[in-house]
Amino acid sequence: MKFNELRRFYFIVKTFLNYGLDELIPKDRLPLLARLGRKSIFWIDNQHADKALPERFRLALQTLGPVYIKLGQMLSTRRDLLPPEYAEQLALLQDQVEPFCGELAQQQIEHHLGAKVEQLFDNFEATPLASASIAQVHTANLKSCGREVVIKVIRPGIDKVIKADVQLMKLLASLVQKYLPEADRLRPLEVVQEYEKTIVDELDLMREGANAIQLRRNFEGSKELYVPEIISDYCTHGVLVMERIYGIPVSDIAALEAQGTNMKLLAERGVETFFAQVFRDSFFHADMHPGNVFVSYEHPEDPLWIGIDCGIVGTLNKEDQRYLAENFLAFFNRDYRKVAQLHVDSGWVPPETKVEEFEFAIRAVCEPIFEKPLAEISFGHVLLNLFNTARRFNMKVQPQLVLLQKTLLYIEGLGRQLYPQLDLWKTAKPFLENWMMQQVGPKAVVNAIKDKAPYWAEKIPEFPELIYDGLKQFKNQQHQMYKMQSWYQEHSRNMAKSRFWALAGTGLVVAAAALYDQQAWLAYALGGGGFFAWLLAYQHSCKKVAVE
């Protein structure tokens, strides 16, 4: 462990002890070395004894900075790993932190863009518009055209802190994977590696810009979601410039209601947007917490979502998309047998799982939630029960679905705030049914033909030449097969002759040995004949067959 990592490790332990998180481990389970260290090196007392342990856990993560804040946000969606009171506290985590100096931000912008701020922007505001754990945002106008923009700049030195923290997490995950009995199912190292990829990607604002451009293209002209335009000429790995948007934070229910927003339609569009990103595009915004979602001031009767901060996006392969869609539809249709079978077929549960028992367990969890408005359904509670059920059946954690689970819970929370009577199932089911029809129905065949039509149109002029080459190749292959067959026949004849002379020679030598005491001259003659026969056998076995 390097010195910087050791120093960071001490700070982490000190923070945990400051919040009394050593209570999470029973004292009788602590090794002697850890107890001695607690009383000597780590002697810090709990400074927040008046708060409940789950709240202290959240505050400790908040103190430790971006890596632990975002880890807490991710864990809040993993109800299989934490008790409900901890998961609910972690769901409150928002990565709002103290801003860093505006002058330092200006220096960072000038360093990355290679020019003075005054040369590129007018009205640069040194006081940040918003500040998060990894970056902060300043407002300005483009000098070239006067357009209002926001400038996002990475917090200085944050990459070193993140890399050191992730290395420590990997070390801890390796120990958990080695010593925890359930590690094979929970796959902690894979979860940390997936998390590392996510947070390291956030450090590259060029990647965020590319994500935003792709998401904007996917919803171009849409009435459901608007993504601000990225000003690509002013973007680097450490600075991102985009158009400034004006909207009402989705969490400001009073302001939305005051302008007469159609809350039902807004909530429905949120659900539809989520499913469109996941199933239509296989490219979804995976950080849709209230701080990253706004509602346009324009036409409140036909509300438009605005999504920002595309640093974290998720993708699913075709197989996961298909299994998820079929699982959702099976849930909507209450076909729990199919849900259980799909889990087995996808490899999410072991192949020896008894489908009937798994079906019954899923039914017991999910049946009570149907035909109820969203206000009466706690998705977190349902997920907790499902994860507990999955634990009983040794369901393995699917790291590629962690972001999807997190996003789904964000969508549920937003929907609950906007329109508690929203029927999530009724809103999502038609979309999924239509998507499945496009994947497996007659329409899917037509679409596949349409997609491949340009390729085949390009290849049709080559068909005569391809047919001629194919026939020529077939003729050559026939000739080669004939030669190989002739070679094999000749080789087989030689081998047969070799075996014949070998057996004959052996018979003659055996006869010579038997007659040696009675008639020596005959024995010598037979023995000589036997050796000559062996020589012929050897000659035939070594004979090469030419392939003409």
Structure report:
The protein is α+β, with helices and mostly antiparallel strands and 548 residues long. The chain folds into three domains: 130 residues, no CATH class; 188 residues, no CATH class; 66 residues. 60% of the residues lie in helices and 7% in strands. The strands form three sheets. Strands 1, 2, 3, 4 and 6 form a five-stranded antiparallel β-sheet that branches. Strands 5-10-9-7 form a four-stranded mixed β-sheet. A two-stranded antiparallel ribbon has the order 8-11. A hairpin with a 3-residue loop joins strand 2 and strand 3. Helix 1 runs antiparallel to helix 3 and helix 8 packs antiparallel against helix 10. The longest helix has 53 residues. The protein is elongated and about 125 Å long. It starts with a helix and ends in a 6-residue tail after the last helix. Belongs to the protein kinase superfamily. ADCK protein kinase family.
Topology of helices and strands:
Elements: H1 3-18, H2 32-39, H3 53-64, H4 66-75, H5 84-90, H6 102-113, H7 117-120, E1 121-122, E2 130-131, E3 135-142, E4 148-154, H8 158-179, H9 183-186, H10 188-202, H11 205-218, E5 225-226, E6 239-243, E7 247-249, H12 253-258, H13 263-281, E8 284-285, E9 293-296, E10 305-307, E11 313-314, H14 318-332, H15 336-345, H16 355-366, H17 379-392, H18 402-418, H19 424-440, H20 442-459, H21 463-515, H22 520-542
Parallel strand pairs: 5-10
Antiparallel strand pairs: 1-3, 2-3, 3-4, 4-6, 7-9, 8-11, 9-10
Helix pairs in contact: 1-3, 1-8, 3-4, 3-5, 8-10, 13-18, 13-19, 14-15, 14-19, 15-16, 16-17, 19-20, 21-22
